[in-house]
Amino acid sequence: FGCYVSSHVRPLSPSRMPVLCVQVELVGSPLTHERFLRRHRGTYGPAIEAGKQIFPGPKTPIKNLLLCGDSVFPGIGMPAVAASGMVAAHSMGLETLGKQQELLDDLRI
User: Fold this and answer.
1) Are the C-beta atoms of 106 and 97 separated by less than 8 Å?
2) pTM of the model
3) Which of 4, 28, 54, 87 has its C-alpha lying 20 to 30 A from 96's C-alpha?
4) pLDDT tens track for 23-53
5) Residues in contact with 78: Cβ distance below 8 Å, sequence separation at least 6, in sequence order
């Protein structure tokens, strides 16, 4: 929802500047997810078959590269995505905030 001053709109009263308000709505659909989130066909999470596969963990074949987000365990949604970051950090031996802070200090971040 946004408002801006417009010289093309008659003011409500002589003492007030004319203001035009426009409300923009974007419907969340697979098409908008594909466009704005860059997700193949607007999908959520990993491409796994229900009952046949499980969410992958954070580890990858590349040394020191871990994954987090909606495509790894524990899955889809903000709480789960945040938890996946914690799982990745714990996989690196960063179980406590103090250890994470030490790593950031070492990296000068």
Assistant:
1) no
2) 0.52
3) 54
4) 777 778 888 888 887 888 887 777 777 788 8
5) none
